[in-house]
Design a protein that fits this description.
This protein has helices spanning 7-23, 26-34, 41-49, 68-81, 87-101, 104-116, 223-259, 271-297, 303-332, 343-355, 360-372; strands at 121-124, 140-143, 147-158, 165-172, 175-182, 188-194, 200-212, 216-217, 261-262, 265-266. It has 373 residues and is α+β, with helices and mostly antiparallel strands.
Length: 373
C-alpha cells in the first residue's frame, strides 16, 4: 500500500489541520466535553461537511469510497487535535460493519445518514465478564412470530449515548447474531457516565425488547467476522489518532522546555531532558509505523495475518502512547496535570489507548492464538 500523500489527501489533511488549529482550541475541547451529548454538534456537522464521516462509505450510499490510507491521513489530524467527537465509535466502525455485512435495505436506511453525519450508530458487544471477547455473549435474542425479543445487558459502549441506534450482539440458540436496535425502542434502560479522558460511555439493559425480523444484520453465520471487521477498522483509526496525539504532545513539550528556564538557562539545554524528549520521539515514530501496519491490515484477505498485524499494532501503539503521555506530564512537572494546560488531556487520552477496543493482555492473547493457528 502506498502511503505517500496524494494531492487530494494532502489538501484534506491541510484543511483539517487549519480548521482544528483555528477553531478547536483547548477551550473549545472543554466546551465540547461539557455538552450534554459529550461532543459539540456544530463541530460534528463541520467534520461531516468536510467528508470525514463518509470516507469509507461507498459512493452509492453518499460516501467517498476512500482507501484506508486516506482514513489514516484524517485520523492522524483528528488525533493531533484531540477531538472528542465520536468519529471512530459512531461513524468508522458501524459504517465498516454495515457496508460489509448489512442487507441492501439496511444499507439504504443507515449508510447515507452516517456519511452525512445525520445519524450515529454505536456497537454494543461488551458484557461485564466478556474481557473484550466478542464470543462471550449472555444477552439473548428469542425468536418470535414477528421477529425477536432481546433480554440482557451490554456495558462500556463507547459514546453509546450519542447513538441513534445500537448494533447489539445477542445469542440466538447456539449462534450469535447482530441486531440494529433503535434508541427509541421500548424496554431499554441506559446508564451514562464519563470516562477518565472526558469522553462518554453507556451501559444498556434490555428487558423484553421487541424487534422486527428486519433488525437482524447479516444472518446467524458470520456475526463474529462482522464484529472483528468493525473492530479492526476502529483499531486502525485509533492507532492513527494516537500517533497524531503523540506528535502534538511532543511539540507541546518541546516548546515548554525551550521556554521554561531553570538555573539561568532553558530546560531544553539540559542533556538529560533532551534524551527523554528523544525517547518520546522514537516511540512516536514506532507508533506511526505500526499505524501504517494497521491501516494496511484492514484490507488483508488472510484472516489470521490480519489479526496478527492489527493486534501487534495495537499493543505497540498503546505502549508508546503510555510512555509518551507519562513523559510529557513529568517534563511539565506539576503543571502537567492541571486543567490549565492541554498536556494533561493528551496524557489521559493516550492512556485510554490501551483499554479501548481491547487492552494489551487481550491483544497479546489474540496474536498468539493467530500464530498458533
Amino acid at each position: 500500500m502506498d502511503f505517500e500523500y496524494s494531492d487530494e489527501q494532502r489538501m484534506l489533511a491541510d484543511s483539517l489541520r487549519r480548521y482544528i488549529d483555528d477553531h478547536y482550541t483547548h477551550e473549545q475541547r472543554r466546551k465540547s466535553m461539557d455538552c450534554d451529548a459529550g461532543f459539540d454538534s456544530t463541530v460534528w456537522g463541520t467534520l461531516a461537511e468536510m467528508g470525514v464521516m463518509g470516507l469509507g462509505v461507498p459512493v452509492a450510499f453518499g460516501g467517498f469510497s476512500q482507501s484506508t490510507a486516506s482514513q489514516l491521513v484524517v485520523h492522524l489530524e483528528l488525533g493531533r487535535g484531540l477531538l472528542v467527537e465520536p468519529v471512530i465509535p459512531c461513524a468508522v466502525m458501524p459504517s465498516a460493519l454495515l457496508e460489509a455485512y448489512a442487507s441492501e435495505a439496511q444499507k439504504d436506511a443507515w449508510l447515507p445518514g452516517l456519511a452525512m453525519g445525520e445519524k450515529r450508530v454505536a456497537i454494543a458487544y461488551l458484557e461485564t465478564d466478556s474481557r473484550y471477547r466478542t464470543d462471550r455473549v449472555r444477552c439473548t435474542a428469542t425468536p418470535t412470530q414477528n421477529g425477536y425479543t432481546i433480554d440482557g445487558a451490554k456495558c462500556l459502549i463507547w459514546h453509546g449515548q450519542a447513538a441513534d441506534a445500537w448494533i447489539v450482539s445477542a445469542r440466538v440458540g447456539e449462534s450469535i447474531a447482530l441486531f440494529m436496535v433503535p434508541r427509541a425502542t421500548d424496554g431499554i434502560v441506559s446508564t451514562e457516565y464519563a470516562t477518565m479522558d472526558g469522553q462518554r460511555g453507556i451501559d444498556l439493559h434490555f428487558k423484553q425488547v421487541k424487534l422486527p425480523a428486519s433488525a437482524l444484520i447479516g444472518g446467524l453465520n458470520n456475526e463474529l467476522d462482522a464484529l472483528d471487521h468493525a473492530l479492526d477498522h476502529g483499531i486502525a483509526a485509533q492507532c492513527a489518532q494516537a500517533a497524531g496525539a503523540m506528535e502534538r504532545v511532543i511539540d507541546i513539550t518541546r516548546d515548554y522546555l525551550c521556554t521554561r528556564r531553570q538555573f539561568g538557562q532553558p530546560l531544553a539545554d539540559f542533556q538529560a531532558l533532551q534524551h527523554r524528549l528523544a525517547d518520546m520521539l522514537v516511540q512516536k515514530e514506532s507508533a506511526l509505523s505500526m499505524a501504517y501496519v494497521a491501516a494496511q491490515a484492514v484490507d488483508e484477505p488472510d484472516t489470521l495475518l490480519r489479526r496478527r498485524m492489527i493486534s501487534a499494532a495495537k499493543v505497540t501503539v498503546a505502549k508508546a502512547a503510555r510512555l509518551v503521555g507519562q513523559q510529557a506530564v513529568q517534563l511539565h512537572g506539576g503543571m502537567g496535570i492541571t486543567d490549565e494546560l492541554s498536556v494533561g488531556d493528551y496524557f489521559k487520552h493516550l492512556t485510554m489507548t490501551d483499554v479501548l477496543l481491547g487492552d494489551a493482555d487481550y491483544h497479546v492473547e489474540r496474536y498468539c492464538a493467530a500464530m498458533a493457528d
